[in-house]
Amino acid sequence: MSVLLCLCTCPDEASARAIADALVEERLAACVSELPGIRSTYRWEGQLTHDREIQLLIKTTDARLEALTSRVVALHPYELPELLAVEANGGLAPYLAWVAEQTRIDD
């Protein structure tokens, strides 16, 4: 099982908190860190856009990614939310085991 770091931006604290709480409570993520105060620059509908956002750092496993993706899409206020998953190539073994345990699917 691979541990993943997922990146997701949110427009405000309320949506960031709602997504973080749901993902952890539903065991789709072991931990979600909120990084406020980022500024995103992107093109949307043909316009250059600058937005203040909150970056979520979501720690999960590859086994939970599909369910996590569905949940983020359901909860997120954006029409097209950012969700990128990056595989952890290493890390502190006990922490990686903790992520796996916290996101384990109960039978």
Can you walk through the features of this model?
With 107 residues, this protein is of the alpha+beta class. The protein has helices at 13-25, 65-75, 93-102, and strands at 3-10, 31-44, 47-61, 84-87. The chain has one domain: Alpha-Beta Plaits, CATH 3.30.70. It is built from three helices and four strands. It has a four-stranded antiparallel β-sheet. A hairpin with a 2-residue loop joins strand 2 (31-44) and strand 3. It is elongated. The mean pLDDT is 96. One of its GO terms (biological process) is response to metal ion. It comes from Lysobacter spongiicola DSM 21749. Belongs to the CutA family. InterPro entries: Ion_tolerance_CutA, N-reg_PII-like_a/b, N-reg_PII/ATP_PRibTrfase_C.
Brief synopsis:
Helix content is 32%, strand content 38%. The protein is α+β, with helices and mostly antiparallel strands. GO terms for molecular function: copper ion binding.
Layout: helices, strands, pairs:
Elements: E1 3-10, H1 13-25, E2 31-44, E3 47-61, H2 65-75, E4 84-87, H3 93-102
Antiparallel strand pairs: 1-3, 1-4, 2-3
Pfam families: CutA1
GO molecular function, one term: copper ion binding
InterPro entries: Ion_tolerance_CutA (IPR004323), N-reg_PII-like_a/b (IPR011322), N-reg_PII/ATP_PRibTrfase_C (IPR015867)
